[in-house]
């Protein structure tokens, strides 16, 4: 299936005998039109092909990590992110969020906990199970993700989460204001330099002795597993995205971030080389995800 050209999808149209099938075939055709290379940004020196091979990797990389592009991407994905996140990870995202909480050292005094790059608060139930008595806050810079998160805080958690609509790399959070900072799947959209800024900010907002834990998806080292995983994310997920939520281009972008993130070594380097942080790396499910845990010294 993964080696098959995308055009095989068009055969759906040939069997459209009911209105349901006709509708489905139209959706697939529309998806294929949307998946053709398009020029969506003029950031940097030239126009950037958003979903195909890129001729100038430096320009493409710039756009990939441009904060405005990242914010826009998550704004557009906010309608469907939660559902697709579970599908895209084969349900592993649920397990990895659980493992995230277990990575926080058990002896930390967690009076104030921050969920960084919180999205719509997908980790919050787990977070409250792990820190039932803590004061909890979240931060994200996508206005739509934040709007959903605030709604969720109000409707499901009695307004317990204060949600900051801020850039994690340039926030107004006070120095040493958190005992614990966690984040699920929030690191891959930081390039090398942004990862270092993130480490600086983490060291600034954590109190001495405070702890952090992060999880992120990675490319597995096993070539067979990596091929299957790549194929699933680059081919199957955009189709599922189109059928379920009609935004395949956005879900193809996730694959590009995963590719660029590789084994997560740039996050590891940034955390490990920061003089005020200690970090341990944890391989999760044969390297399909990575965990980082550590402390502010
Ligand atoms: C893949 S989602 C993860 C959402 C959630 N943590 C989860 O468990 O699914 C990444 C989130 O990070 C946010 N984000 C990316 N860069 C950010 C930054 N510099 N400051 C704040 N939020 C950021 C995006 O808006 C998006 O909501």
UniProtKB/TrEMBL annotation:
Keywords: Methyltransferase, S-adenosyl-L-methionine, Transferase. GO terms for biological process: methylation. Gene3D superfamilies: Vaccinia Virus protein VP39. The keyword Transferase applies. Residues 31-53 are annotated as: Disordered. It holds the Pfam family Ubie_methyltran. PROSITE patterns: SAM_MT_UBIE (PS51608). PANTHER family: 2-METHOXY-6-POLYPRENYL-1,4-BENZOQUINOL METHYLASE, MITOCHONDRIAL, METHYLTRANSFERASE. This is Methyltransferase domain-containing protein. It comes from the Bacteria. Transmembrane segments: none annotated. GO terms for molecular function: methyltransferase activity.
């Amino acid at each position: 299936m993964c080696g098959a050209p995308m055009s095989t999808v068009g055969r759906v149209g040939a069997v459209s005998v009911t209105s349901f099938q006709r509708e489905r075939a139209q959706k697939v055709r529309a998806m294929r039109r949307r998946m053709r290379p398009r020029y969506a940004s003029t950031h940097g020196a030239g126009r950037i092909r958003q979903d195909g091979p890129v001729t100038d990797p430096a320009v493409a990389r710039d756009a990939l990590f441009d904060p405005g592009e990242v914010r826009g991407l998550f704004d557009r994905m906010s309608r469907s992110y939660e559902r697709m996140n579970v599908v895209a990870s084969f349900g592993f995202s649920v397990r990895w969020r659980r493992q995230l909480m277990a990575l926080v050292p058990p002896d930390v005094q967690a009076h104030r906990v921050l969920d960084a790059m919180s999205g719509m608060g997908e980790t919050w139930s787990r977070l409250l199970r792990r820190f039932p008595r803590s004061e909890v806050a979240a931060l994200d810079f996508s206005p739509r993700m934040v709007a959903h998160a605030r709604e969720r805080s109000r409707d499901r958690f009695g307004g317990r989460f204060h949600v900051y609509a801020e850039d994690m790399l340039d926030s107004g959070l006070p120095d040493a204001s958190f005992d614990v900072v966690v984040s699920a799947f929030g690191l891959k959209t930081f390039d090398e330099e942004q990862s270092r800024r993130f480490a600086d900010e983490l060291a600034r907002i954590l109190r001495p002795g405070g702890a952090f834990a992060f999880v992120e998806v990675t490319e597995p080292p096993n070539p067979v597993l990596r091929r299957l995983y790549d194929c699933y994310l680059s081919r199957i997920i955009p189709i599922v995205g189109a059928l379920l939520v009609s935004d395949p281009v956005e879900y193809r972008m996730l694959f590009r971030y995963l590719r660029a993130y590789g084994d997560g070594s740039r996050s590891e380097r940034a955390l490990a080389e920061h003089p005020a942080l200690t970090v341990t790396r944890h391989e999760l499910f044969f390297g399909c995800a990575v965990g980082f845990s550590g402390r502010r010294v």
